[in-house]
Structures are given as C-alpha cells and as structure tokens.
Specification:
Blueprint (H helix, E strand, L loop, with lengths): L3 H4 L7 H7 L2 H13 L8 H14 L4 E6 L7 E6 L1 E4 L3 E4 L3 H5 E4 L9 H4 L4 E5 L6 E3 L2 E10 L8 H21 L8 E15 H5 L2 H6 L24 H16 L4 E6 L5 E6 L2 E2 H21 L2 E4 L12 E10 L16 H16 L1 H6 L22 E2 L2 H12 L34 E3 L4 E7 L5 H24 L3 H16 L11 H10 L7 H4 L6 H9 L5 H54 L5 H33 L3 H27 L12 H6 L2
Parallel strand pairs: 1-8, 15-16
Antiparallel strand pairs: 1-2, 3-4, 5-6, 6-8, 7-8, 9-11, 9-12, 9-13, 9-14, 10-11, 14-17, 16-17
The chain binds adenosine-5'-diphosphate and magnesium ion (MG).
C-alpha cells in the first residue's frame, strides 16, 4: 500500500528537491535567500530554472506559470508551455532564468483600485524565492509577486512579505535587548483552520442563488437544524469521508500538512486544519486548499461552498487564523513557559500584542469586512463585529498584579479526576477556552476568528505583523535608553496594560450586554463592511503603513476602493439574482398554485363540501404572491438608485440601506410561501434536500 511518506510533498520543489536538482553553490545561495532574507543573486536564476524544469518535466509538467494572488483574493495563473519548435518539426523544452524571474501580466482585467490608471496598463510578476514552486495540473507553478509599472503592489503577497520583514527587524531588536544573540530571524507562523459546506452538485445546479452568489438567497429552514449538536465531531458519512481522503492526498502531495478533519456544527458543514508554518507559505497553502476543496468536491459529485453564510438560520463558515512568532532557533516567542509570571520577555510581548490590537481595532475589523461576512459577524455563531481579546485567568491575573504592584502567587495546576481509576490522569490547563472571543490567546498563539471562510489570510496577517512591529519598536525605543532594564520592562507593562486593557474581555462575546459594555469602554463597533472599509485611509493608518513600508498611501487607497467596489458588485449580483428567481421561477409557480387551489376551492364548495384548507391557503398565498410582486418593484428601484450613484461609497450605502432590506423583505415572504405548497412544485431544491442528502 502507498504510504503518506512516499508522496508527501512529491509535487513541491522543496529543500530536498533543490539540493538534488541544483548545483551546490546555487543551492546554498538560494537557501540563504529563503532562510535569512538575503537578496537573491540574479546570476543563479538560469541554473535554478534549469533544475526546476528538469524536475517538473519528470513530474509530468508541460507548462509553467507565474502564480500570483491579485487583489480579488483568489489566485491567478497564465500558462506557457516549455516547447520551442526546432528544425524537422521537433521541439525543445526550454525554461530560462529570465522566464523564472520576471513575467509580464497583461492583467488589465485585474482589479487595481485606480492604481493602474494612474500609470499604465502594464503589470509585472516577479519570482518570490521564499515560497516553493510546485506542479499542479501539469504546470510548474512559480509563486510570484504582482506589481504595476510604477512599482505599486497589485497583489496580496507583496505587502505580506514586506510586513514580515518589518516584524523580523522589530522582533530581533527587541529580543536582543533581552540577551538573545543567537536568533538570526524571527518569522510569524500561521495555521489557518478552514470551514466549508458540501452540497450535492445536482441540487446545487438547480439553484441560481448558489450558482451566482455562493449562498442561498431564499430557503425556509428545515425542521431540524443544528440544535441537537449531533453533527459537530459526528461520525463522518461515507461520501464525505471519501471526499476528505482524496482531499488530504491532494494536499499532502502539494506539501500542505493537512492535519485535522471533522464535521462542524451545522449539517453539511466540515472543517480542515493544517499544521502551522511560516505565514507566506501558509497563505499559499490556504489559497491552494480552497482551490483543491472545490476541485475534489466536483469529482465526488459535490460542490464545496466557501461563502460566509450559505444558509440562513445555521452557522456560517469562518477561518481561524492562529498566529504566533518563532525564531529560526525554534523558540516560540508566545510560549509563556511553565511560570509565565517570571517570563518578562513573554509578558512584554503579550503587552505589545494587547496594545497593538486595542490601538488598531479598526484595522483588524476592516481586514475581515465583506458583504458576505456581514451576515456572519454578530450572528450567534460568530464573533461580533467588535474586536476584543481573551487572555484567560492566569495571564490576566499576572498583568493585573503587575499593574497594581501586588504580588502574584501562581496557582498550582490541578489534577483532573475522572473518578475512574483505570483512566490516565493529567493536569488541567490553567484556563478554559473562550469560543466567543474574536482574538483569543490559546496557549502559545493567538487565534483570530473573524475571517470569513473564503477570505485570503494575507490581509489580516499583513496588518498583524505591522501593528505588532510598531508596538515592539515603541518598547525598544524606551528599553534602549533605560538605566534599569527590568524596572523599565515592568513600567512599560504597567503603563501599556493600563491604557489598553479595555480590549480584554473574558465574557460571552455573543451577548447583547457585551455590545453595551463595549460601547461604555469606547471600543469600536463597526457593524458592517461599509462602515469599516473607509478606515483603510485614515491618517493613523497611512502613517503606520508608510513608516513600515508595507503599503504606500496610494496602495491603501486602491485596496479601499477595490473592497468597496467588491461589496457593491456582490450586492448587485445578489439583487439581480433575487429578482430573476422571483420573477422567473417563484411568482409563476405561486400564480399557478394559487389558481389551482381556487379551482379546487370552487369545485369543493360547489359540490357542497367544506374547503377550509383551500380557502385559507389560497388567500394567504395570493397575498404573499402580490407582496413578492410588489417587493420586486421595490428591489428593482433600490438597485437602480444604487447604480445611479457615481461615488462608490455612496453606492455602497445605498446597497446596504436600500437593497439589502428589499432582499430581506422578499425573502421572508418567499420562505413563508415555500412552507405552504406542495414541495414537488417548488422551483428549486429546499433546505431539507440540500442539507441532509450528502
Ligand atoms: P481548534 O479547532 O481547537 O482551535 P485546531 O487543531 O483545529 O484547533 O487548529 C489549531 C491550529 O493552530 C492548527 O492549524 C495548528 O497548526 C495551529 N497552531 C498551533 N501552534 C501554532 C503556532 N505556534 N503558530 C501558529 N499556529 C499554530
Ligand atoms: Mg479546529
């Protein structure tokens, strides 16, 4: 039988493969760039390309492509074959250093948020040697950055890598002050847990809302949802299990360390989580994971839904971004150790994260702002739109005692007693978990839970890396001047914790009371994407990203416009789809059912029988039918009003304030009507079929 170890990473041009396929000096030079961030020597590109080509052809590749992550949030590729025709009708297979290093992407169709208009229609892709190349579907994929002729980043990867550089410098500066002299690099590590739904492809194809919007715009709840809690961690059904096995194999071949799989809370909902790795790699991996989820699902007659809220009344899908910081010597800087109260470096780093998150709540909030995620944030299954942090009792107590100048006495970790002698006993963790917190400390990392399932993790990590660099530098500025190092560390913790501890909240983040309490604390509550996105270009944020060379002002502006435009386009599509379904599917069916019922009614009453059912349903259905008809006009007007606005933010407000309510009003009528009619006559598959058939 085939073993995982035989094929794990078999499609990746990783370190072991590089060693085998590259001349020794080339391999060493490349490794320096990858591990220590040294500038790549363009002289080695020819040899690297040669080695890559040889290896890729052995793996069955016929083409190569620069693979990049434009601001659409998905990946882009344009394939060129290796062939060069020669005499006698034959071909040579070629791939040059120049082709490896640089590509010209005539990408005028990629969103640029006005960036390209200011310069010219040319875009370039440049090899990112820090991410491994791989073979996918017969093509050698070379991870690249994508930028404009004027040198502006047109992608999600470039700012991420810039932020990693900033954080590396700021972290090394700080840990040197604590006497760490051996670490050469500090890198953020991320493990992204990915939630998704699986539905039957045949049913999916019959629903225009799923096909065009990725979510159901209509649908009465099934009698059973997730209330029994019987799906979460439940036994995986055979069809899903076969899907998951193939998914894992495909991921493993691409070197993606898929680790955990399980059923999630909602029916038809599942999760996968990989082992964490350096953030630029985990970003590539997560993009590939989303692509492969969809591809493998199709092979099994399924469709993988990554939308934040595919179904009303059920949990939506998120992505948990587990973030930490690691030195090249293998030290996790967020590991509190056995006695966190004595670990000053850890406590200072923790304080830096607290102050960064409090100071830049707006940025974390906008990093997850989208039309889709608006359905999820603040719902009863997802973190609210308010950013807050959970530390757990022990750490909160330690920081409190430093702030108050009182002595902290560590509590012994209790032993678990199961009351069963034969079971192994172990010590309890010092704190429980808090599932409702948007940003929770979970042992040796922070788990940021506000991302929507389809989102790229690049944006939020670019932000995290930058805001934490800023806090580190503020601390280093002070510590470098300090006369008594330890007492200055204490002073900083006391001061910053005091200023920023309002961001810490250990209670139920889903509750109404928290919203009120957060308001009293002065925390931001940016309820929807339209309110959050304009913060991209606030003065504070332009200065911050400028200082760390992560985003220029114009790059921020472009991201702001792209995301607002995306919101508008998404709602435009939803509005048109709702109209189309109502006019071309729902209303004609309702009209026919109403007429049939009336005929039955007259027939029955004419024959001298009672017809309570027909009379009551026909009346109610006719009323709903007319209501839906009127809602079509309202929705249509709302869409026109929104589209008539030239300003993208005004347009977004019109979508939020006019179009969304019109869709909601229509939905409530359609869903009521659905529960009153013969299910065989309903024009598309219902929630019972979609959620309980796989
Ligand atoms: P849960 O669902 O209980 O939160 P999972 O096991 O599903 O936990 O996912 C935890 C994720 O956190 C995994 O992707 C794991 O690799 C990641 N993780 C663990 N340690 C670190 C770390 N030091 N840095 C980044 N991510 C980490
Ligand atoms: Mg998990």
């Amino acid at each position: 039988m085939e073993k995982i170890t035989d094929y794990f990473g078999s499609l990746v041009f990783n370190d072991a493969v590089m060693k085998e396929y590259l001349p020794e000096d080339v391999y060493k030079a490349l490794k320096k760039t990858i591990e220590q961030g040294k500038t790549i020597d363009p002289g080695i590109a020819g040899d690297v390309a040669q080695g890559m080509k040889e290896w890729a052809i052995e793996k069955g590749a016929t083409h190569f492509t620069h693979w990049f992550q434009p601001m659409t949030g998905i990946t882009a590729e344009k394939h060129d074959s290796f062939i060069t025709p020669t005499e006698g009708g034959r071909v040579l297979l070629e791939f040059s250093g120049k082709e490896l290093i640089k590509g010209e992407a005539d990408g005028s169709s990629f969103p640029t948020g006005g960036l390209r208009a200011t310069f010219e229609a040319r875009g370039y892709t440049a090899w990112d040697p820090t991410s491994y190349a791989f073979v996918k579907d017969g093509s050698l994929c070379i991870p690249t950055a994508f930028y404009s002729h004027g040198g502006h980043a047109l992608d999600k990867k470039t700012p991420l890598v810039r932020s990693m550089q900033a954080l590396n410098d700021a972290s090394l500066r700080l840990i040197r002050l604590f006497g760490n002299t051996d670490a050469k690099t500090v890198k953020p590590t991320v493990g992204a847990e990915q939630e998704y739904f699986l539905v039957d492809k045949k049913l999916y194809d019959k629903r225009e809302d799923l096909r065009f919007c990725g979510r159901t715009l209509f649908g009465a709840p099934a009698p059973k949802g997730q209330e029994l809690g019987d799906h979460y961690y439940g036994v995986i059904r055979p069809r899903v299990s076969a899907f998951m096995k193939e998914l894992d194999k495909e991921l493993w071949m691409l070197g993606i360390p898929s680790k955990t799989k399980h059923n999630e809370a909602a029916p038809a909902q599942h999760e996968m989580a990989p082992v964490f790795t350096t953030v630029n790699i985990s970003t590539d991996h997560n993009q590939l994971t989303m692509e492969i989820l969809k591809k493998v699902a199709e092979k099994h007659g399924l469709v993988c839904l990554l939308h934040e809220k595919p179904f009303g009344n059920l949990n939506g899908s998120g992505k948990h971004n587990n973030w930490s910081l690691s030195t090249d010597t293998g030290v996790n800087l967020l590991n509190p150790g056995k006695t966190p109260c004595e670990n000053l470096q850890f406590l200072l780093i923790l304080t830096a994260v607290i102050s960064a998150v409090d100071k830049h709540q707006d940025l974390l909030r906008l990093s997850v702002a989208s039309a889709g995620n608006d359905h999820r944030l603040g719902g009863h299954e997802a973190p609210p739109a308010i950013v807050s942090m959970f530390l757990g009792n022990e750490l909160t107590d330690i920081l409190d005692s430093i702030e108050n100048g009182t002595e902290y006495t560590a509590k012994a970790r209790e032993k678990m007693d199961f009351g069963v002698k034969t079971m192994p006993s172990f010590r309890k963790a010092t704190t429980d978990r808090n599932r409702t917190s948007p940003f929770a400390f979970t042992g040796n990392k922070f788990e940021f839970r506000m991302l929507g399932a389809p989102m790229s993790i690049a944006g939020v990590n670019t932000i995290l890396n930058t805001i934490i660099s800023e806090a580190f530098d503020e601390f280093s500025d002070r510590l470098e001047k300090a006369e008594d190092f330890d007492s200055e560390v204490h002073a900083i913790i006391r001061e910053y914790y005091g200023l920023h501890k309002r961001i810490i909240f250990d209670g139920d983040g889903y509750s109404k009371e928290w919203e009120e309490e957060a308001e009293r604390r002065g925390l931001l509550n940016l309820h929807d994407a339209v309110s959050a996105l304009p913060y991209y270009t606030s003065k504070k944020n332009v200065e911050l990203f400028g200082k760390y060379n992560v985003y220029s002002e114009i790059e921020l502006k472009s991201r702001e416009s792209i995301n607002i435009e995306r919101y508008n386009k998404c709602l435009h599509i939803e509005g048109l789809t709702a109209l189309r379904m109502a006019k071309e599917q729902i209303l004609p069916v309702l009209s026919k059912i109403g007429a049939d019922l009336s005929l039955n009614l007259t027939a029955k009453e004419g024959a001298g029988f009672t017809a309570k059912y027909e009379r009551s349903i026909a009346e109610k259905l006719c009323e709903l039918t007319d209501g839906i008809f009127e809602d079509c006009a309202t929705l249509s007007d709302a869409i026109n009003k929104a589209e008539n606005s030239d300003d993208i933010l005004e347009k977004a407000k019109a979508y939020r304030d006019l179009v969304i309510p019109a869709i909601n009003s229509m939905r409530s009528k359609v869903d009521t009507a659905e529960t009153m009619v013969d299910e065989n006559e309903w024009p598309y598959p219902n929630y019972c079929d979609l959620l309980f058939s796989v």
